[in-house]
Design a protein that fits this description.
Two copies of one chain form a homodimer. Chain A is of the alpha+beta class. Chain A has helices spanning 2-16, 64-76, 111-119, 140-157, 171-182, 188-197, and strands spanning 20-31, 34-41, 51-52, 55-57, 82-89, 100-108, 125-129, 169-170, 201-208, 216-221. Chain A folds into two domains: 19-141, Nucleoside Triphosphate Pyrophosphohydrolase; 157-221, Arc Repressor Mutant, subunit A (Orthogonal Bundle), CATH 1.10.10. The first copy, chain A, is 33% helix and 27% strand. In chain A, strands 1, 2, 3, 4, 5, 6 and 7 form a seven-stranded mixed sheet that branches. The A-B interface holds A 9, 12, 16-21, 58, 60-65, 67, 85, 87-88, 90-92, 99, 101, 103 and B 9, 12, 16-21, 58, 60-65, 67, 85, 87-88, 90-92, 99, 101, 103. The structure holds a DNA duplex.
DNA sequence: GCAAAAGTGTTTAACATACACCCATGG
DNA sequence: CCATGGGTGTATGTTAAACACTTTTGC
């Protein structure tokens, strides 16, 4: 149904020469100390074998936001994660298929949800580190770059990092998130003073044991909705 | 030509039930100590007599950015001002005319360009203070509110204010811009220390005379492209 | 007992804030 | 000469940045 709709729209759009609206979703996660993006491998000319960010046409009965949620669910089986509109890419020739304007979104996926995800068998879906991306179809390299910039910026003035970590985490894990995404190291003592002083996190009252080192205190986020906080 | 295209598209869009792409441009200026928005008065049902922000359909041969520039030029006769993409509004029923997704932009117009503008005779075009807006058609009240928020935020971390002032200006005029847009007063001495210390402005070497008070030094912006600067 | 990561304070410099008076001009 | 807006400095508190050692555990 989705494929026939796509083909139908392509025909209509070519005939009437007008723009159709698509949505592309950049899904980001942090895994093994690397910031990664979910990509799918394309089957259609002229991009056979190329990778792209998941996307699809916006249907007549859904809002653009709803389309982004649907793509997230269909292409990655992920629900309830952080999703926000990123930017709208509207150059005339960005898609050889026809005039497609793409409203791009970015989603943040916690690494524990991600583990669930990779147990499913999508042979044409893969996480790539943003620093080792394959060549992407369309203008998707620009879209991914814009998403990474937005994430880096928001890390500094919001509590958005809550959407990348599991419910409880150690302060070292939290700091690692910042270091991975920003690509620089931070001072441990200053970082801890800051996140505790700003009440970004609170102790969960448990410890992470089982490692050959001193057990780490576990923390929770004080808020799990987006708030403005000057962290950096 | 533009009107017939619009009617044609309306027909096509209704027939094939799919979304067309429009762009709306929120033009902002500061005049007489008030932040104002340019609105046009509509002629078509169901919004006869209602005010709206200038907008129009994106043509097949132009990018969405180009459409925004065209709307700015057509509806307001303004060229070369600051223009950036704001947000894409994509709810299903936001336009009774059909499924229209709007890529909103915001433009900043210096008050001297604006004086030129208001000498022209547009009986259906008017500047309204954002605090005294008439009821707006569609979801344009949301769009304007989003634009104002974006402007307030960018004022704090960029030099964007350059796009609202003439080439030379006094520090009091500059401070007035900040106070008007942010809706709060600032300390004169601290403000001056800040903008000079950050090298946001440099002296123009002239003075503004002709007022019943001490002449004020005139300044210029050190840069007239958008830069990140922590001002507030 | 040793390797590995967790945890903890102090000093210094930079910046933000609060605050009040004199100056140059036009009328 | 007076009304108007322009221009200037200092003291205080707050925040950012730099920096090294002790603790607790598993093996």
């Amino acid at each position: 149904m989705c494929i026939s709709y796509t083909k139908y729209m392509a025909k209509v759009a070519r005939k009437y020469k007008f723009a159709v609206i698509a949505s592309d979703v950049v899904m980001l996660t942090v895994r093994d100390g690397k910031l990664e993006v979910l990509c799918i491998q394309m089957q259609k000319a002229p991009f056979i074998g190329k990778w792209a960010v998941p996307g699809g046409l916006v249907q007549p009965t859904e809002s653009v936001d709803e389309a982004a949620h649907r793509i997230l669910a269909e292409k990655a089986g992920i629900h309830g994660v952080y999703l926000e509109q990123l930017y709208t890419f509207g150059k005339v020739r960005r898609d050889p298929f026809g005039r497609v304007v793409s409203v791009a979104y970015f989603a943040l996926v916690p690494s524990d949800a991600l583990r669930l995800k990779t147990t499913k068998e999508y042979k044409d879906v893969q996480w790539f580190p943003v620093k080792k991306l394959p060549g992407l179809a369309y203008d998707h390299a620009d879209i991914v770059a814009t998403a990474v910039q937005r994430l880096q910026a928001k890390l500094g003035y919001t509590n958005i990092v809550y959407s990348l970590l599991p419910k409880t985490f150690t302060l070292s894990e939290l700091q690692g998130m910042y270091e991975t995404i920003l690509g620089k190291t931070l001072d441990k003592r200053n970082f801890r003073k800051k996140v505790i002083g700003l009440k970004l996190v609170k102790p969960a009252g448990e410890q992470r044991k089982g490692q050959a080192s001193r057990p780490a205190e576990l923390y929770r986020f004080a808020a799990t909705e987006l708030k403005k906080v000057e962290i950096l």
